[in-house]
Amino acid sequence: MLRAAKFRIYPTAAQEAFLWAQWGAVRKCWNMALFLKKHYYRTRGVSLDLIHEIKPLIARAKKSRKYARLREYDSMALQETVRNLNKGYRAFFEGRAGFPHYKSRRGPQSSYHCTNVSVGPNYVRVPKMEPIKARIHREVVGKVKSITLEADAAGDYYAAVLWEDGLAEKEPLKEIYEDQVTGIDVGITDLLTESNGRKESNPRHLKRARKALRRRCRQFSRTKKGSRRREKARRRLARAHKRVANARSDNLHKVSSRLVNESQALAAESLRIINMLKNHHLSESIADAAWGELLRMIAYKMKREGKYFMQIDTFYPSSKTCSCCGFKLEKLDLATREWTCPHCGAHHDRNANAAANIRAEGIRILRAEGLPVLRREMSSPNAR
Ligand SMILES: [Zn+2]
């Protein structure tokens, strides 16, 4: 199974200089490939194939005196950048991303390495460089497939490592228990509500980090363009951004791991439906809640455990339907947090009721797909 982790690295001054030079070369290849592609299209109406026609030019350029310095860098890193550009073009034509643009020294930097790469107890190794000191906070056992070296806007360096742990993915469960199925309703005030009524709010440290971010943002905007202070403020701002992103990501990992541990199957609405239903004016809270990221984490963690995750993509009035009797309200205001079913008298928390309906829909889908969803033999006084 493929595993991924990002480690902070601490290059020496010489390594730092080399990394920046290599990133420069990577950028150069990207920008040249993009230029050629655009230029030929504009002047001759020819759409060059990036992989078959442009990528081989790197090897040719290295033989020329002008570009001889490209030989100093990991050739895989240079080639990969053209492959990435090709992906960028595809994403653009499939409507998933904007048109690829030229890269500058000011943006985030990265280079991809996939041959002769390894991870040691306190270092990472890539071609053309001595081992780089690293803080390896997770065990890397198995075959390292690739290492991507990165610099972020705060001026910190990282190695994103991808490795094959040699373990087979778990077989999907052959049968599950009904009481092990959980529905999830994601929200704005609370990150999510489970069908059992448990709520998960956005943590306080995230709010604190966001406040600090706003302060850094103001400080940055007060500095003069091109000044030393501005550069300093820019780094502080980038660091504050990173703290928010880290706090958010830590929390999402924690929440998703707990959900995965506690259930055999999870059901949620698809991101498409979620975005359709939730209030778009609250964009900041929405960004914070980071629903898409949460669903993505749940999906891969459930698969890893051989468990089931259903994303319900058909529109279904989960908030307005009574989860006890199926009665459907005509209308339910966004502001109404609790309601009582006029048909059966059940009192509902808005989100928990929605989660219960999503759970029921999840169970229906699992059964329809032929998976036995068993009822447990209950020994409660109610059971006969
Ligand atoms: Zn009812």
Automatic annotation (TrEMBL):
Domain Probable transposase IS891/IS1136/IS1341: 178-279
Database matches in Pfam families: Cas12f1-like_TNB, HTH_OrfB_IS605, OrfB_IS605
Keyword hit for Metal-binding: yes
Coiled coil feature spans: none
Keyword check for DNA-binding: yes
InterPro entries assigned: Cas12f1-like_TNB (IPR010095), RNA-guided_DNA_endo/Transpos (IPR051399), Transposase (IPR001959), Transposase_put_HTH (IPR021027)
Bilayer-spanning residue ranges: none
Residue ranges of every copy of the Cas12f1-like TNB domain listed in the record: 291-358
Keyword list, A-Z: DNA recombination, DNA-binding, Metal-binding, Transposition, Zinc
NCBIfam families associated with the record: guided_TnpB
Family classification: In the C-terminal section; belongs to the transposase 35 family.
Protein name: IS200/IS605 family element transposase accessory protein TnpB
